[in-house]
Amino acid sequence: MSERRLADLLAMWRIRAFEEKVRDLRAEGPIVGSVHLCVGQEAIPAGACDVLEPRDALFATYRGHGWALARGVPAEPLFAELMGRATGVNGGRGGSAYFTAAEHGFHGENSIVGAGAPIACGAALAGRFDGSGRAAVSVFGDGAMNQGAVHEAMNFAAAFSLPVVFVCENNRYSELTPIADMVRAPRLADRAAAYGMPGHRIDGNDAEAVRFHMRDALEVAREGGGPTLLECMTERLVGHYIGDAEAYRQPGELERIRRREPIARLREGLLADGVPAADVDAVEHRARAEMESAAAAALDAPFADPATAREHLYA
Amino acid sequence: MSERRLADLLAMWRIRAFEEKVRDLRAEGPIVGSVHLCVGQEAIPAGACDVLEPRDALFATYRGHGWALARGVPAEPLFAELMGRATGVNGGRGGSAYFTAAEHGFHGENSIVGAGAPIACGAALAGRFDGSGRAAVSVFGDGAMNQGAVHEAMNFAAAFSLPVVFVCENNRYSELTPIADMVRAPRLADRAAAYGMPGHRIDGNDAEAVRFHMRDALEVAREGGGPTLLECMTERLVGHYIGDAEAYRQPGELERIRRREPIARLREGLLADGVPAADVDAVEHRARAEMESAAAAALDAPFADPATAREHLYA
Amino acid sequence: MPERDLTYGEAVNAALHRLMEELPETLVYGEDVAVPGGVFGVTRGLRKQHGDRAFDTPISESAILGSAVGAAMMGRRPIVEIMWADFSLVALDQIVNQAANVRYVSGGRLSAPLTIRTQQGNAPGACAQHSQCLEALFLHVPGLRVCMPSTPQDAYDLLVTAVHGDDPVLVIENRTLYFGAKEQVQVGGPVRPMGGARTRRAGSDVTVVTWGAMTHRVLEAAEVLAGEGIDAEVLETPWLNPFDTGAVLESARRTRRLAVVHEANVTGGFGAEVVARVAGAGVPLLAPPVRIGTPDVRMPAAQTLAQALVPGADRVADELRALTGREAPR
Amino acid sequence: MPERDLTYGEAVNAALHRLMEELPETLVYGEDVAVPGGVFGVTRGLRKQHGDRAFDTPISESAILGSAVGAAMMGRRPIVEIMWADFSLVALDQIVNQAANVRYVSGGRLSAPLTIRTQQGNAPGACAQHSQCLEALFLHVPGLRVCMPSTPQDAYDLLVTAVHGDDPVLVIENRTLYFGAKEQVQVGGPVRPMGGARTRRAGSDVTVVTWGAMTHRVLEAAEVLAGEGIDAEVLETPWLNPFDTGAVLESARRTRRLAVVHEANVTGGFGAEVVARVAGAGVPLLAPPVRIGTPDVRMPAAQTLAQALVPGADRVADELRALTGREAPR
Ligand SMILES: Cc1ncc(C[n+]2csc(CCOP(=O)(O)OP(=O)(O)O)c2C)c(N)n1
Ligand SMILES: Cc1ncc(C[n+]2csc(CCOP(=O)(O)OP(=O)(O)O)c2C)c(N)n1
Ligand SMILES: [Mg+2]
Ligand SMILES: [Mg+2]
């Protein structure tokens, strides 16, 4: 039992250490442009990807670094991508908001809010015909629930009983605006009923809870029962993007949410269960070491070659 | 009591007589192109427009002839519009699917499925600032419920408590495809809950029921209670468009739905209540006579002048 | 090669049947395409023959196009229909921001071989929301391929090529052509390469570049002009991306006069691109190049108004007379 | 007239404040524009000053644009923000099929005086979905007005003109300009008419037509070339619809050489329209006209790649040297 939780902790620490390194590299210069970190939301990719199979397809958003890592994309090509290197997972063409690594079942980030949801439906649809038994996972934020494409995708998946799990990471903000001000019925999971599919609001700061519901939803999906909506309640501990002044935070908000953030929570739980502090902390060290060396290796790689900039537009 | 029902009957007969005249003119030649009739669905505009006020704004679809008439647009400029005459309600620029007559609170048909819903939200929003107390009505079909713009509009109206009534005319088909095959949860009114607004499935073949629910929804809207979704169950007695072979009809379907169509139903009710058949039938004759003479007058009008074709693109 | 007498619409249908048979990874879907066989009957029989691989969808263009991108990424070859090109505007994101990026952004490791069939243009009584010619929008988007067949043979061939291609392709048909005359169509032939222009009429006085349904009006005008001693070369470019610039330059160099005719409105239309390429190549012309299209206006439903706007054979002939310096016969 | 030292972003903000004050029918809304004051801070203070007339919206571009059309029909003057031009593609229907039709189809009895503020273009590290220059799409749509300010003064003036105008207008800003140097901006002046070009630099060897952020790179190139004895005339066209064709023709007639520079990719870009107009007018040129833009490719995030694609001052200078027949200095 504590082994699985230590594995969860490692999965989460890998993401957090990656993101913190990204933050530093962005401050120091090697990374430029807009970057959206998922610090605080690590339990969702950690729990969900644990029960995904290689055949499954995952579609994330610009806040998708954690999903890429949890899906098994090595850190080095991700760092390299962020720094515009030839060794980047997209050879520098994607950048922070548009990673893709189909070979890891990571069918990509997407920086158009909601656009990944219909695409995920298509991956699930393909599975109907290719005998793969593939399920597709579509990840998006609370704000994306108000985008037309997400609505169309949910209805499409439900009407055709497609094996899709819609994962809504409800971090309570759409960029700088509270989702509570942008909807009248704040339980987004309840929207699932409109499409005739199950919807669950779950603790998105608990990898175990995410794993449980994800496994269940996948089982339903693979048995032909159709899609499920999982509203994973979480919080980001950082700004919407690096540089966000976070003026929208309430007094005391950050302290409050730090108390329930997934890594600290799991750490406390493990200690309370008698796991030695050294074992717990070793996980963090291991993750940080991995990310330091991955970043260093990426920094050594050559920049993407301008001579290749026009390649691969067409077959 | 029977007076109001006779008035409903007249409102419905005006629509039916108009549509049947349109069908004839389309067959005979003066009307060309795609035309969508609302035969069988007359109770919805008849009941709803009865409780609308001049200040309110109504946004319909290509299947909107009945709504234009019920809103008070005279028949002659509508016929003229259908025949491309200079005297048409849009001077020939709109055609069957794109009538507008803002001076009658008829803010237009729209031939893009779902597109009118956000526009109606804007009319309601304007009322917030212009002191008019305006409510806006957005009409669309069952199939439109699966269009992203409708979803966005419903959330927008609900989040901001805008005075909008969404009227879904559920005639069980989206063009040639049964809506039942395109959604998993067939009660579309239940989708309202996703947005935190009331939704009612009502008898759309009963003008009185439509009036009741419309009045109620308008009251809520004007009091600041926000939008309502009314799913009005109905059937079209004709094809999706003139020329539709209706191959999708089940055996016996047309007979079945003719038995519950609004005009025959109301006629029977009136007769059962002792209203003399002559009084009831006089309504039909009056409506048909009006439409005959309106069509004749429209036919006499000059065609839209080609020399004006480029006018009014910009202010 | 087998030949069949087919209308333009039937040729599209024949191509779809062939593709469903020879490429098991094809899917055909869209609004009303399967059980009803399409609002123009063009997808008839596919459901019966191929079952679930042809299916009807909700009125959800973002879901239709987006799912096609996803299915294509995973190895399917979806052929989806957007009933009118005007409707693509509710979901253009999936074409431009999604489909067009897949191959480039992944450095060629992923692709999105989907085909979008749509149809466009004005027809009698059609309103402003069902009349637009939007090819110029798609032609400005790197990563897409675009073609516009005007004959039954091309309706067949271009679709076959599009679906066999490994990139997103828009095949823009025209509903006024679906029910035209039957023509002999070679079916079942080899898959042709993308691109290439067609000299529909050889001539020496002026090069007229055109595409889509307008090709027929241009040919009509050219016949009239031939009787007046004006010898127009009509060059149809059914493939607009890739575009056969070489063929245009060669012809314009020969005739030393250039006109481009399209149904879309003139400003920002693809005619501007054709003229700019010829001008940019420094082809010496005897007269300034002419663009013939719909004036920059919305499309009215009344036929008297629409006819004053959409170029007909008469107007094309008039403009070509002016371009070649001849007077209209009395 | 009062003058203030403002950045481009501050000038937009000042115009918005003025408009909210002088036109009570204005509304300002969009994603994060009100309480947060906009992701670039450009709409700061409007909520505080004008309360409910500035408000934040759900991430629902169809609802934002559609409601703006409806509110405008009813007499409001909504000023809505689409955060990136790329995002307009999820809701283009409301601009093209709805807003652009209102006046024409109603024969002038209804209108839709809405202003859509957006910003576009590439910036360091931006991905393919946040980098496109889409003006050519909007410029092909009759019924819309389009402008692209490049200076603080124009950022102020054009927005004021747009909002006072009675038709749908797109004001396309550029985020790389928001935080540039402060400049003296005349505020509170009379509302200027739409249209008109600006001679940013007079010259006699070549006419360079440009717009948007690219104007600055062209001016930079022109300065370099001046040192080499090449005298470029830089004609900026901040209004693209209406477009000042006359100014372009006049200048090209004088210099007898033409280049058009834009950040959008070349094929189907508005540069084609400019070249086609000059060619169509029969302006005699000493050399074929040149279009300088991003090659037809998606936009990569890596700076080394993006810089190889988006035209910089160096490339503009090189192309102008070639056009004027001079060699680059060693
Ligand atoms: C169609 C579209 N509209 C707007 C944006 C700008 N935008 C980027 S992220 C974002 C907020 C998304 O909020 P949410 O869905 O809750 O996801 P989160 O960022 O919180 O993970 C917005 C509005 C966009 N990228 N795409
Ligand atoms: C965005 C868009 N997609 C598709 C169409 C084509 N179309 C016109 S009517 C229609 C069916 C609409 O069904 P429903 O909403 O139930 O309305 P009804 O016609 O039954 O009144 C379709 C698909 C369109 N006009 N607009
Ligand atoms: Mg969020
Ligand atoms: Mg219906």
From TrEMBL, chains A, B:
This protein is called what?
A: Thiamine pyrophosphate-dependent dehydrogenase E1 component subunit alpha
Q: Which cofactor does it need?
A: thiamine diphosphate
Pfam families attached here? E1_dh
Leader sequence residues:
none
Q: Which GO terms describe its biological process?
A: pyruvate decarboxylation to acetyl-CoA
Q: Does the keyword ATP-binding apply?
A: no
Highest taxon of the source?
Answer: Bacteria
Entry keywords, A to Z: Oxidoreductase, Thiamine pyrophosphate
The molecular function GO annotations come to: magnesium ion binding; pyruvate dehydrogenase (acetyl-transferring) activity
Which PANTHER family does UniProt cross-reference here?
PYRUVATE DEHYDROGENASE E1 COMPONENT SUBUNIT ALPHA, PYRUVATE DEHYDROGENASE E1 COMPONENT, ALPHA SUBUNIT BACTERIAL AND ORGANELLAR
Record domain Dehydrogenase E1 component: where = 13-306
Q: Does the keyword Oxidoreductase apply?
A: yes
TrEMBL record, chains C, D:
The record's InterPro entries line, in alphabetical order, gives: THDP-binding, Transketo_C/PFOR_II, Transketolase-like_Pyr-bd, Transketolase_C
For whether the record's keyword set contains Oxidoreductase, the answer is yes
Residue ranges annotated as coiled coil are: none
Task: Answer yes or no on keyword Oxidoreductase.
Answer: yes
The chain positions of domain Transketolase-like pyrimidine-binding read 6-180
Query: What UniProt keywords apply to this chain's record, in alphabetical order?
Result: Oxidoreductase, Thiamine pyrophosphate
Q: Which SMART domains match?
A: Transket_pyr
| TM stretches of this protein | none
Give the Pfam families listed for this entry.
Transket_pyr, Transketolase_C
Give any GO molecular function from the UniProt entry.
magnesium ion binding
- Which cofactors does this gene product need? thiamine diphosphate
Stated name of the protein: Acetoin dehydrogenase
Q: Which organism is it from?
A: Nonomuraea deserti
